[in-house]
UniProtKB/TrEMBL annotation:
Domain of life (superkingdom): Archaea
Subunit structure: Monomer.
InterPro entries per UniProt: BioU-like, NAD(P)-bd_dom_sf
Record-listed NAD(+) binding positions: G10, T11, G12, G13, I14, G212, T213
UniProt-listed Enzyme Commission number(s): 2.6.1.121
Protein name: (S)-8-amino-7-oxononanoate synthase BioU
Nuclease among keywords: no
The keyword Transferase belongs to this UniProt entry's keyword annotation: yes
Primary gene name: bioU
Natural source organism: Halocatena pleomorpha
Pathway(s) where this gene product acts: Cofactor biosynthesis; biotin biosynthesis
HAMAP family per record: BioU (MF_00852)
Residues annotated as the enzyme's active site: K145, E216, H220
Annotated positions of the Allysine modification: K145
Length: 351
């Protein structure tokens, strides 16, 4: 009942770790993976170790996919050895239509995890449209960050329901893990005053291995927005990182935790704030990820429930663990005929 086949769209910093983590979940079988230039499919189960070894240090990004505009800003391909990204695996093939190729196989796939860039707000919603157009009736799940994308998915609710799709959105770390945790912590209160999320991430592997994540975060710095971040060259991104000595601090981030907590009835979106510190030169976290939920209890006490993540938990662990847990819950809902758009505060991850 709980055996699940999954396709991973995007095998960059996050998607690679999704595949790696799946090897620790015997109920989860990756059967397809793609990046901008390649696809690997095996409905009996991909050889994840071979795929990861073949693509280590070899992340395809930049332009190349017919029908898909440049969605991730960069034009560079980090490449070592033959082939590019997934296509370098013996299981992989080059393609100019990676997402359509996965869609063609999707009748046999229970869930599709989108570890794709989100620099064009409507990219993930448009990918969802393509699955709807093909009559897909499983689970779509993303780890997107931006608040405004949730509305674009809500606009598609009817089509998703008609298709029989359960769409779980914003199911990474923040939003995702921390949103769900905040929703639980809020249960002490009858009135929630504020939810403050402050994350710390250390990524020694830096921009090179986490292009989508770092580029999207730069859009939150003063003087930058999503459009300027998308257009920046890799050298310009590196220069911003150098200017900050590798440590980027963010306040008032447009992270969808706010709208996802509001749609779950926890508090107003305006009462949620998200900020964080990213160190791209050290694995050690520059600050401890902390969530503070302040409110008033039914018996009139004002208090703050606080929870923190262990400093040794990596971003990859905190994005992919919850994403796979939310995926499992999404598949259970889908198999019970529950379709539509759901955020992490509306459902809790399975284990
Ligand atoms: N919610 C969270 O806590 C959280 C944390 C980290 C990252 N993220 C999100 O995860 C996403 C992925 O981040 P990343 O660092 O892995 O990015 P990345 O740039 O390292 O990887 C992106 C992958 O998508 C592929 N891709 C790009 N355009 C494509 C297309 N048109 N068709 C097929 N494949 C395509 C690339 O080839 C690459 O494999 C981003 O949207 C980021 O914001 C969320």
């Amino acid at each position: 009942m709980d055996d699940i086949t999954v396709a991973v769209l995007g095998t960059g910093g996050i998607g690679r770790r999704t595949l790696e983590l799946s090897t620790h979940k015997e109920w989860l079988t990756p059967v397809a993976a793609c990046d901008r230039h390649g696809i690997a499919v095996d409905h009996e189960g991909l050889d994840v170790t071979e795929l990861l070894d073949a693509t280590e240090g070899n992340i395809a990004s930049g332009d190349g996919g017919a029908g898909d505009p440049v969605t991730d800003g960069g034009t560079a391909i980090k490449q070592s050895g033959a082939g590019e990204g997934v296509a370098a695996s013996v299981q992989g093939d080059s393609t100019t239509t990676p997402i359509d190729d996965v869609i063609a196989e999707s009748g046999l796939i229970d869930a599709v995890l989108m570890a794709l860039p989100n620099l064009e707000h409507d990219f993930i919603p448009r990918v969802a449209d393509r699955f709807v157009g093909a009559g897909y009736d499983g689970v779509l799940i993303d780890v997107l960050k931006r608040s405004r994308v949730i509305g674009l998915l809500d606009e598609r609710e009817e089509q998703l329901v008609d298709s029989g799709i359960t769409f779980v959105c914003g199911a990474g770390a923040t939003p995702g893990f921390l949103t769900g945790g905040a929703a639980l912590a809020a249960q002490s209160f009858v009135d929630v005053e504020s939810i403050d999320i402050r994350w710390g991430v250390g990524l020694k592997s830096g921009y090179e291995d986490n292009r989508g994540t770092v580029r999207e975060d730069i859009a939150h710095l003063d003087g930058y927005d999503i459009e300027t971040a998308r257009e920046m060259t890799d050298a310009e991104i590196e220069a911003v990182i150098d200017d900050h000595d590798g440590v980027l601090e963010f306040t008032d981030m447009e992270h969808a935790d706010d709208v996802l907590l509001e749609r779950a009835g926890i508090c107003d979106a305006d009462d949620v704030s998200v900020g964080g510190v990213l160190d791209v030169r050290n694995d050690e976290k520059p600050t401890t990820t902390t969530v503070s939920v302040t409110g008033t209890t039914f018996d009139g006490e004002r208090a703050t429930n606080t929870f923190q993540l262990g400093d040794a938990t990596s971003m990859a662990a905190n994005v992919n663990g919850p994403a796979i847990g939310y995926l499992k819950t999404g598949v259970r809902m889908n198999r019970n005929g529950v379709y539509g758009v759901f955020g992490p505060a509306e459902l809790l991850p399975g284990f």
